[in-house]
Amino acid sequence: MRLATLLAFLRPALPLILGLSLGCSLSLLRVSWIQSDGDDTCMDAGINNGLFVGKKQQNSAAGGRPGQNDEDFKPRIVPYYRDPSKPYKKVLRTRYIQTELGFHERLFVAVLTSKATMNTLAVAVNKTVAHHFPHLLYFTGLRSAKVPHGMMLVSHGDERPVWLMYETMRYIHQHFGGDYDWFYIMQDDTYAQAEQIKALVTHLSINQDVYMGRAEEFIGGDEQARYCHGGFGYLLSRSLLLKLHQHLDSCRNEILSVRPDEWLGRCIIDFLGISCVSQHQMQIRNLTSLTPAGEAGLTWPIGINAPFIPKSRFEVISWDYFTEQHLFSCPDGSPKCELVGASKADISDIIEAALEQLNSRYQPQLRFYKQQLLNGYRRFDPTRGMEYVLDLLLEAVTQKGHSHVLVKRVNLVRPLSKVEIIPMPYVTEATRVQLVLPLTVQELDFVSNFLDMFAMNTLDTHDNALLTLLFIYQPYDAQRVSQMDVFAGVKAMVGELEKRYAEVKIPWISVKTEVPSQVKLMDIVSKKHPVDTLFFLTSVWTEVNTEFLNRCRMNTISNWQVFFPMHFQEFNPVLMYHGDQASSSTDFLRDGHFDRHAFAEACFYNSDYMAARTKLAADILDRDEVLESMEVFDVFLRYSGLHLFRAVEPGLVQKYVLRSCNPRLSEELYHRCVLSNLEGLSSRSHLAMALFEQEQANST
Length: 700
What we know:
It is built from 23 helices and 24 strands. The protein is of the alpha/beta class. InterPro entries: Chond_GalNAc, CS_glycosyltransferase, Fringe-like_glycosylTrfase. GO terms for molecular function: glucuronosyl-N-acetylgalactosaminyl-proteoglycan 4-beta-N-acetylgalactosaminyltransferase activity.
């Protein structure tokens, strides 16, 4: 009975016992195989001065040649030998490997509190940030202070602020100086973003002497020296604390100050020569000496691209002058105009930003109030953003109430670095594109080239694109259409295309009007197509190609985005080449410019146009004359919440032609057409050369 009970008890351990027995047996068996004879003795470790000794060394020592019996070389481990004449010393090992390797905790936080705020502000700090800072301790000057629940408090017994700071620094060094890399000192009325402070210390090097916080100037002291304002808290590195400890007694006896943060800052500056820094970006500045450009390559602001450097006088970016009431570089070309709208909001915002930066730098000693903007300059640098130079008449008020009026120039940059990720719906390149081409009598000479390019780039390639023509008749031509149709030649060309491509039908729509408003024409076309139609509103000078049609499909999203490309307009070849043949170059976008005044090309869905047009109709009621001053771009801009994608389009290249501007259009549209013609003549350098040659010819 007892044997059965014993076997039942040992049965779970039988695999373990069998495994151990088998392992021991195999080990003993292996030892018997590799057991060497008595000739293989270890040589004296002092003679060979090594840990491993073998037969090869014995043969060499006996005068044998190296290389004999190399295959018999077997290393031997020299046993540990302790000198009996020396006392035995026990080696003490640390309990944790972290301590033995010299690792430190990352951050220690000290909170300075007082009798008046211990049960209010200090408790609030403990409830808000204590769970973010795992190592947080409160310091006070009270004797036998009653500690609120959940707080660890150190009482120094002296309520003088400077003495409290002195004792706190000594206590931190004595008890925590060897355990932490960073020390954050704050007051109980400091609003601290704990996660940002913890993230900051994880990116800072522990080998640097860092004194970081809100840098403030000493009143009446050296302008270069700064101390860290205690109201914002400040960060000290372990290396700085170790160096500062030996000077604390000297600072207590030699430095007189009422404010504890000023006393500590003066102590660090006088004995260590380290001033407070307020931005971590300063370490970017320190690393510039290691770059190829050195300190000369440092840009302002740090992290923003350097200003654009023009290669010639024609590339110089001009500054626009402004005041608080007027702008002296107006969109319509006039020398002076009233500051309104977005420009007024922009300048008001930049002045407020300048005052905010000045006050943040000089507070609490000085407070600035704007009296007047004397001069203002701005320019748009495409490599960095909008730059501003402001001459401000300011009133500076000190803490004691004394004021002084001064003029200060400030430089500001509104960078282009703010990137917004916009979620975009998925689109494909399989959508059918419906081209709409309005034609007037003045444009008949260019129709043949347009139809040839359309046939070659879309019909021959079987691209999913259709064409609709809009014949715009003047009232006189419309009355004589039965006798002489001014568009008869175009209709014949269309008939030839339909014969050549049997599956293709090119419809046309006849319209009679004296003022060919783009909006009125689209109203007619929109009613004759389904709501899901993707329109490409084009002009007769456009050379349609597959590359652009695909971008039209991708950049136009129903109920989300419309696309208004800027075509590339070639310059007048007479002014560019003086009658010579154009030089062959791979850069086909070299002798021209992107026409920012033209809005003739547009890609949009019919449903989006109908929705915007409905809002426009409700706004203007029956005043159809308003439509003559608008283009399709204006309709989407004012009466839709869609994204308007306006971008340069290298796939749309137009040959030079002097367009006829209809004086019956609105003043804005007519002026835009004239500017497009003028800027499309030639580059500034070629225009200057043409004027110079003309003056030379006139003088002779």
